[in-house]
Amino acid sequence: MDNQDNQTEDYLSQIAHNFGLTPGMSIQEQREQRAEANGLTFACEGRQPVEDIWLIHPARQYRSEAYSLALDIAESVGIEHLVEHVVKQPVDYTYTMKPANNELSPSALTLYSFLSMLQTAEHKDENSCVLDSNFLFELDDITLVKLFRLIRVSRHIHQQGGKND
């Protein structure tokens, strides 16, 4: 192998690393392997399977992941119709929460508040979230893991100032 081939191979390895990909393995195989290593095989389902709560890859776009996580979380309490994809050009999967104009259960209201705080659309006002005392005991493990991941992804998006997401 000559020097140019080595440079090309190094370059391709760096690109794969930046996207969190392992050459020679399907994305599904990689996802399942990471989920097993992190004890999250049970949460590797839905629109946005979670195989790692904390890992952020520099080259990935995270708005689409946040949108899918928000839909999965909202669906767990029947409020997925309140998660709105904000149409932009180019498409970036920013989401916002529609106003809740009907009676929501305490758990649904708490998740609605969380999703409002974590929305990827620009915030025009301060959002707050009041926890119902039974919320954490009623929340299933899959939704809890997805909520943790959404918090991580939303923090990354906001820390980047909306760039590289």
UniProtKB/TrEMBL annotation:
It comes from Mannheimia haemolytica (Pasteurella haemolytica). This is Uncharacterized protein.
